[in-house]
Design brief:
The protein has helices spanning about 5-10, 15-30, 105-115, and strands at about 35-40, 45, 50-60, 65-70, 80-85, 90-95. It has about 120 residues and is of the alpha+beta class. Strands 1-2-3-4-6-5 form a six-stranded antiparallel β-sheet. The chain starts with 5 loop residues before the first helix and ends with a helix.
């Protein structure tokens, strides 16, 4: 089986979802260098050293992104769910992007924190 590509994930997506994806990636790149790594079921987003987020779902009208942090960040308005990975010191913070405006100052602060290696 061939390796997945970014095109495999975005092929056939709605114009709205593509707009969300492009805006999210552009916003992340404005914070600093990132590299995208297509995997079997998701796209990894990496700084130079490790994966700092994952795009896990492309819906008809949304983009779902997971940010892994070392501790939960409950005081926020952007994450719909925060869950500890069983047996690990990792808390996955789930972000569902419905509008380009969802990438606001609060989320950009979390994107910066993720890119710098967590909290």
């Amino acid at each position: 089986m061939a390796e997945k590509t970014i095109d495999d994930f975005i092929k056939g997506r709605s114009a709205h979802t593509l707009e969300l994806y492009n805006h999210f990636i552009k916003s992340f790149k404005n914070i600093g260098d990132i590299t995208l790594y297509p995997a079997k079921t998701m796209i990894g987003i990496s700084n130079r050293h490790k994966r700092v987020a994952w795009i896990t779902a492309f819906g008809k009208n949304f983009l779902h992104v997971v940010f892994p942090f070392k501790q939960p960040c409950y005081d926020n308005l952007c994450f719909q769910k925060i869950a500890q990975v069983p047996g690990a010191n990792q808390f996955n913070h789930h972000f569902r992007m419905l509008l380009t405006d969802d990438v606001n100052e609060e989320l950009e602060d979390f994107m910066k924190m993720a890119r710098q290696g967590g909290n």
